[in-house]
Structures are given as structure tokens and as C-alpha cells.
Amino acid sequence: MTKVGPRNLLEVSRLTGIPFTTVHHRVAQIESEARKVVELVPNASKLGLVRVVVLVAAKPGLEDIVTQALQIPNYWTVVERCEGAFTHHSIQLVPAQFIKQFREYVSTMQAMNLIKGFRIIQTGNSHLIFPDFSNYSSASGEWTFDWSGWVTAIESAAPTETISDPKGQPMDFERVDLEITARLELNGRMSFTEIAGKINASPSLVKYHYDKLRREGALDRFDFLVTPYPVEVSAIHEFMLEFTDADSMNRFFSAAKKLFFIHHVAKALRKNTLLVRTRIINSQVENMFKFFSELVNVGKLVTYSAARLNLNTRLAQTISFELFDDVSGWRWDVYKNLLELNRL
Questions:
Q1: What is the model's pLDDT at position 193?
Q2: Is residue 233 helix, strand or coil?
Q3: For the whole model, what pTM was predicted?
Q4: pLDDT above 90 (res 220)
Q5: pLDDT of residue 128
Q6: Average pLDDT of span 214-242
Q7: 44-125+325-343 placed in CATH 3.30.70.920
Q8: Angle between helices 192-199 and 203-216 (to 10 degrees)
Q9: How far, in whole angstroms, is CA 156 from its chain's centroid?
Q10: Nearest to 64 by CA among 239, 315, 232, 238
Q11: 175-216: CATH architecture
Q12: What is the DSSP string of 25-71?
């Protein structure tokens, strides 16, 4: 399903040799138990948006207010608490023409003494790393961690894939495209009929716009909710890896397909830097940090830093289609944002 899309179960059946009725039954069974299997992560650049990672350090005692402040412009998709040099981690999809205003807004949070400091990192689209089960034993139910082997693979193997900044212009989209995108973020396998009922449109119109979004590359990634460990026993980190050059960065990105503890990867714009989300069993956290440290020792990394994320505090929402209209495009209300910030 990661290769051919979440809807094309006939092709899944053909590629795996598993009867279609079995494929359909198993997927339905998973969905009934887990509520959903997959969610859309849209290609922000195709919708005139820039993916922005925001790290802020709240003043002690103001953590809850800072959580609210990060939501006010309403271009956020994720806000969560974290441990380390910063107290909050947020992902925002900001219209390209309002990046300056967004930076000024976060600076205002600091000027109002809500936060002690911040870091804003513009990135390209996030790439899902689906768990590689070659290191998993179904007999024992355990994973094998080949830390030294992974270092050697990154050090010696030639890059087979590249990760680069987004290219090309945004597609010609309408508000209905964004509404469909938002529904697929909630459930990537939602049917056209279900979506049509949610947005007051016909199924044929939904299919037309879905096909357009797919053709233009806006439906860039479907995030399958498969992880090596449940959240209760996992440590989730956001690493920033700074590489010596593009070759080293692409070497790591190519090898990441085998590193089952990596969940997704995004490139910082105009830099040889990757933001890497990891999910690993708590007992292996120290070895994971040694792994990244060894990559520095062998000259593949310049440096790295990390924040441990607290998923129990995670707030998430879909793309903010209500801030777009077909006449004026994306909106940014400076007065409203500052008024709400002052009310906090």
C-alpha cells in the first residue's frame, strides 16, 4: 500500500499474490481495530505553503500559554511539549508570502516575555520511512539493532537516493481541493462518497479534484500508522543532523530506509541538514545517541542535536482551509493575531 497508494487494493493483491478478498478483509479488520490505517501528509509547496518547524523555550510557568500562542495564527498542524533546550515543538504550514510575518509573530512572543528563545527551521516535505522488517523476527517478536553495521553502511555505501528542496511552482488549486485534503488527513482511505457528504459536494466532483491533486503531486505522502514499538514503551525524538556535504546527507538518506527506528525525514531548505523523527524502545536510546556520535567521529556528520517529544501533549489539526478563499488566496490577519496574543 505504501508503493501503490492506500486505495488500490487490487494492485496490492496482484503484487503480493494474496487474494483480493483476503487483502480487503485484513485491511478492514485493521481499520475496525485501529480506526484508521493511513493519513495524508500533503505536499505543502504545491499548495503555496512552507513547512516550518518551530522550537521555543517557554518562560517557566507560561508553558500552557505558549501552547495556545503557537496556535493563534492557525497555520499549525502539530504543537507538542518537548524536553531539552526547548519546551515546545511545533510544525506549521505557513503561506510562502507570510514567512516574514510569521517570524515577526514568534519574535513578538519573545518581546512579550512569553518565551526565552526560539528557532525557526524551514524544511521541504517530510518523507515517510516505512519500517524495514528485515531486522524483525516474527518468531521471537523482537528487533535486532545492528548499530555498528549501520554506521559502516552509511560510511561506505554510495548514495542511491537524493533529498532536495522543493522545486516548481504551486499548483492552481481551489478551496474545495483544500477541503478534500483536510478530510484525507483525517483518514487517507475515506471514500469519495464519505468526503462528498462532509463537504457538500458530489462524489464525481470529489473524484475530479482528487485526481487533479494526485496528478499535480499535492497528495505527496500517505503516512501509514505502523511503528516498531507502541508509544507506551517508546522514546520519540526530533534530531537535527548537520552534514559535511550533500553527498554525506544523501548517503544517510539512502541508508535511512533500513533504519527502522526512523519514522520520517525532512530537509532544511538551502542547507545540508536533515530533521529526523525517531521512535525507539527506551532501552536503546543510549545506543541511538552513540550511533549518531559515531557518525560524527567518522566524518559523516558535523554535529547533531535532539529534542525528546512528549506525545501525550500532542495537539494536531488538518490544513487550515478556512483561511483560504478562491478570490484573495491565503490570509494573514496581523491585527487579529496580535489582539489574541495580548489577550493571553
A1: 95
A2: helix
A3: 0.91
A4: no
A5: 86
A6: 87
A7: yes
A8: 110
A9: 29
A10: 315
A11: Orthogonal Bundle (1.10)
A12: HHHHHHHHHHS-SEEEE--GGGGTEEEEEEEEEEPTT-HHHHHHHTT
